[in-house]
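Fold this sequence, please.
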Amino acid sequence: MSIDVGFKTEKPFEELIVTPGDLTLGSIVFGFFFGFAVHVLWGAILETRRARRFSAYIFMVWLEIVADVAFAIVAWGYLAKIFPPGLPVFLTIVGCWVCQVQCLMLIIVNRLCILYSDPRQRRMLRFGTAGIVTVISLSTACIWIPAQLQINHTYIWLNHWWDRFEKSVYLLLDLSLNILFIRVVKARLINYGLKKYDRVMKFNQYIIFVSIGMDILLLGVTALHNGFVYTQFHPVVYIVKLHIEVSMSQLLIKVARSTGINVYHEDHGRITSDTVSGNKTTNNVQVHVDTQVFTSRHINDFEMSPRDHKDVAEAASVNSGNGDTMKVSPV
């Protein structure tokens, strides 16, 4: 008996064949996801308490968690024959997947944007990344859903190759953003004397391998004989990536506070100032670094006004032996 999926198909719809091995693998991944998600959920609660207000960053963290949980439940439910095939199931999975990718990429971009003082550069970075992700997401939705509904053989064949291409694009985008973050931290902070941010740069260098490893894992499981089991790995990959971003946010806060920052107290509505200064002499050149960093009380609140970003700056002056002064441009 053929299954009616609500659309006219080239051939009768063939129900997904799930072997005991497929269901076992999917269930193991499903269980691992929820075990790890509890840890990430606790981290998100701590981030929300620390922020004290519902910023865009906090919203994206929680939306990412909700999308991951919904994706995992629906994907496993379809694999276990709990949910019947049809547009509602496939549309829910694609919707959750789009939220996963958009939120994660924008969280990475916002981490980068706190290092740029030029609003134009921040807009280009945000809209450029969002544009790439949106185009790929819409293209994937327009191919993946008809392929799962088995509209015709062309969609099924195209989805087979597009799946791999789309995941390769996100792998390269993730790698590019993390490399850019390392370069900016080194050029704008470490090279100007803020050596404590070296911890942030080294941590990011390590997590690149974990993040890219998860992308490679997701790309590799698309080769499984069951064309749907790999979807169970999606929420695992993105919940791990979210945990990496939350850990990076916590490290940025810890390092910034130990370095000395100007803190905006939301509860008092005023700014208090801590100045970091240092002196070092090299080859008869006296270098005096006077750093003032203005930032939100919680660095994980990435949404700053243009005036706030203008305040996030460093001023360094280098005095040579003959009294000349060289001004270093703000960060």
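DSSP finds eight helices and seven strands in the chain. The longest strand covers residues 276-282.
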